[in-house]
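Continuing the series of single-chain predictions for the mutant panel. This is the parent chain; the variants come on the following pages.
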Amino acid sequence: MKTHAMPTPPAPAPAPRDLMERAIARLGSPAAVARRLRVTPSHVSRLCKGTSGVSADLALRLADLLGADRSFVLRVCGHTRFAALIYPSGDPERSRVQDAIDELPKDDRRLIQTLIDRLLFLTATSPKGLREDAPKGGVR
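Parent structure:
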């Protein structure tokens, strides 16, 4: 009898605190991040702990600090509708893909969105794009 290995669950979707940790790594300290984002150091601490939300304005400043896609950072910080209003996708192929995703069952939609968010996080926040150890040409 063959036994099948359990599939590996996808990496968790990035959270605002992941973006804050990237900002701290980039600037060297929470105090430096606080100055650049024009917030208090205690607010940066609460963001890193996940006990405080990120306003749309702060999300845009964070995206600029990281050199990341503003739409992506808005979505990660919970401002999906705002991101769609400000940065609508004019690409018909993307719209078709999004329509197909919307038709999936809830659990499948969540899985696909987690994978997309993870991919966007890796490409938006890494200086070289995708990790060097990622397979060339897709999943194997």
